[in-house]
Structure prediction request, 83 residues.
Amino acid sequence: MPKIKLCLDIEIGNYNEVAKIYASRHNMPEALVAMMPESTLKEMVDSKIVEKVKLKLGDFVVGEIERELAEQGLKASIKHSYE
Prediction:
């Protein structure tokens, strides 16, 4: 069975703006988010980004590959996981 590993390095350049959005979405005062240590803020933002990318990328890639294989007359069942 073929296996493919994909690595993404995502660099975020505007954590402060993202922090404001995070605060508004979680009903937290911006001042409270601003007082968080930068490492905590980055960890929270990064974990959300990783979660979202995994969901979107996995669903998209699997759907596209299954569709293209079906167009070629191939039946494939693709399972995906994350490390």
About this structure: The first helix runs from residue 15 to 25.
